[in-house]
Design goal:
The complex is a heterodimer of chains A (166) and B (198). Chain A has 166 residues and is α/β, with parallel strands linked by helices. Chain A has one domain: NADH:ubiquinone oxidoreductase Nqo5 subunit (Beta Polymerase, domain 2). Chain A has 3 helices and 7 strands. A 5-stranded mixed sheet of chain A has the order 1-2-5-4-3. In chain A, strands 6-7 form a two-stranded parallel ribbon. The mean pLDDT of chain A is 90. Helix content of chain B is 32%, strand content 9%. The longest helix of chain B has 18 residues. Chain B is elongated and about 95 Å long. Classes of the chains: A alpha/beta (166), B alpha/beta (198). The interface between A and B is medium-sized, with 28 and 35 residues.
C-alpha cells in the first residue's frame, strides 16, 4: 500500500469532487465541505489511517486569489503503512459548519474545540463544542483576520482592586 | 534610647517599629510564576543567590500563609481572575512585587489575551524591570520592600487604607485610543501587499 494507491482509491470513490496535489513530499487532497467526512471515513476505515495528527484552519481574508474565507486542514497519518495525507476543505460565512470527526477519531474532540474557539467554525455533532483556550465569556473569534491583534478591549474588562479595599 | 535605671540589654521602641522589624525580615512569598521569570525566581531561592539571607525563603503555595505576592511572568485574561482571587485570599498585611517586563507592562505580548500590566487590576508595591530580571534585581526589590515596610508600616496596617487609587494606569488609557486608531482602516493604504517572486 502506498499513498498513490490511497489517492487513486479516493479518486475512484469520489470522482471529480476531489483535487489532489503534491508539494515536495506532501500529498494533499482538497475535498468539498459536504464530502470531507466521507473522505475521512474512507481513510479511517479502509486505508487504516488510525492517527489524526491535527486539525487546523486558515483565514483567507484579503488573500490574493482566494475564493473561500476559511480553509480547514486535517492531517492524518497511518501508523500501519507509514502514510501521511493532508485533507483540506473550505467553508464560508455566515455559518461556517463542518461535520465532526469525533466519530472517527476520539482525538478530534479538543482539536475541533480549538478551531471553533479561534475561528468560529462549528462542528456539527461534536459532543461538547465550547471554548477551550479563551474564557467562556469571550464572544469574538480571535484568529479571524478581521479581529484586531490587540483585541476589542476584552483584556481590560476586569474589576480593579485597590489597596484600600483588599 | 537609654533610660536611667534600665539594664544595658533593654531598649525601648514603638510597637509599630517592632512589628515592622519582624515583618520585613520574615516575608513569606507566594510565587505566582507563570513564565520564564519563574525560573529566575527559583534561581533566587537556590543556593547561589539564596533569598534566605533576607528571611524570605519560605515559599508557600497557599495564599493564606503568605504576605508577599511575587507575580513572575505574563498574566493572560483567563489567569487574571485567579490572580485577583489569590491576592484577596492573602491575609493582611501583604505586599506585591511585579517581576519582569510582562507582569509590569505586558512586555512584548501586546495581544488580545495578555493583560498589559498586573498593576491595572491589583495593587503593586515594587516593580522589577528586566526580561527576565537577574536574581540580584529581585533581591534588590525585596530589600526595597523591606525598607518600605520599615518606613511606612504600622501595626494595624492603617497605611493601606490611604491607597484608594489603583496603582496602574486606567484600563482605557492612551494606548487604547492608539489601538482604536490603528484598527480604523487608513484610506488609500494597501493593507496587504503580497510579495513578488520572480
Amino acid at each position: 500500500m502506498s499513498t498513490d494507491e490511497t489517492i487513486a482509491k479516493l479518486h475512484q470513490r469520489f470522482g471529480t469532487d476531489l483535487v489532489d496535489s503534491t508539494f515536495r513530499d506532501n500529498r494533499r487532497v482538497i475535498a468539498p465541505a459536504d464530502r470531507v467526512h466521507d473522505v475521512l471515513k474512507l481513510l479511517r476505515n479502509e486505508r487504516q489511517f488510525d492517527f489524526l495528527v491535527d486539525i487546523t484552519a486558515i483565514d483567507y481574508l484579503e488573500y490574493p486569489d482566494a475564493i473561500d474565507r476559511f480553509g480547514v486542514v486535517y492531517l492524518v497519518s497511518s501508523t500501519k503503512h507509514a502514510e501521511r495525507l493532508i485533507v483540506k476543505t473550505f467553508v464560508n460565512l455566515p455559518e461556517p459548519e463542518l461535520p465532526t470527526a469525533t466519530d472517527l477519531w476520539k482525538g478530534a474532540n479538543w482539536m475541533e474545540r480549538e478551531v471553533y474557539d479561534m475561528y468560529g467554525i462549528r462542528f456539527v455533532g461534536h459532543p461538547d463544542l465550547r471554548r477551550i483556550l479563551m474564557p467562556d465569556e469571550f464572544v469574538s473569534y480571535p484568529l479571524r483576520k478581521d479581529y484586531p491583534l490587540k483585541g476589542m478591549g476584552e483584556r481590560h474588562n476586569f474589576p480593579v482592586i485597590t489597596r484600600a479595599e483588599s | 534610647m537609654a533610660l536611667a535605671g534600665l539594664p544595658e540589654n533593654v531598649f525601648i521602641t514603638t510597637v509599630d517599629a517592632a512589628a515592622n522589624w519582624a515583618r520585613s525580615h520574615s516575608l513569606w512569598p507566594m510565587p505566582f510564576a507563570t513564565a520564564c521569570c519563574g525560573i529566575e525566581l527559583m534561581a533566587t531561592a537556590s543556593a547561589r543567590h539564596d533569598i534566605a539571607r533576607f528571611g524570605a525563603e519560605v515559599m508557600r503555595f497557599s495564599p493564606r500563609q503568605c504576605d508577599l505576592l511575587i507575580v513572575a511572568g505574563r498574566v493572560v485574561m483567563k489567569m487574571l481572575p485567579v490572580l485577583q482571587r489569590i491576592w484577596l485570599q492573602m491575609p493582611e498585611p501583604k505586599w506585591c512585587i511585579s517581576m519582569g517586563a510582562c507582569a509590569c507592562s505586558g512586555g512584548v505580548f501586546d495581544t488580545y489575551a495578555v493583560v498589559q500590566g498586573v498593576d491595572r487590576f491589583i495593587p503593586v508595591d515594587m516593580y522589577v524591570p528586566g526580561c527576565p530580571p537577574r536574581p540580584e534585581q529581585l533581591l534588590a526589590a525585596l530589600m526595597e520592600i523591606q525598607k518600605k515596610i520599615q518606613r511606612t508600616g504600622t501595626l494595624t496596617g492603617r497605611e493601606f487604607a490611604q491607597r484608594t487609587t489603583p496603582t496602574g494606569p486606567a484600563p482605557f488609557d492612551i494606548d487604547e485610543l492608539r489601538r482604536r486608531r490603528e484598527v480604523a482602516p487608513v484610506p488609500g493604504l494597501e493593507i496587504y501587499q503580497p510579495p513578488v517572486f520572480k
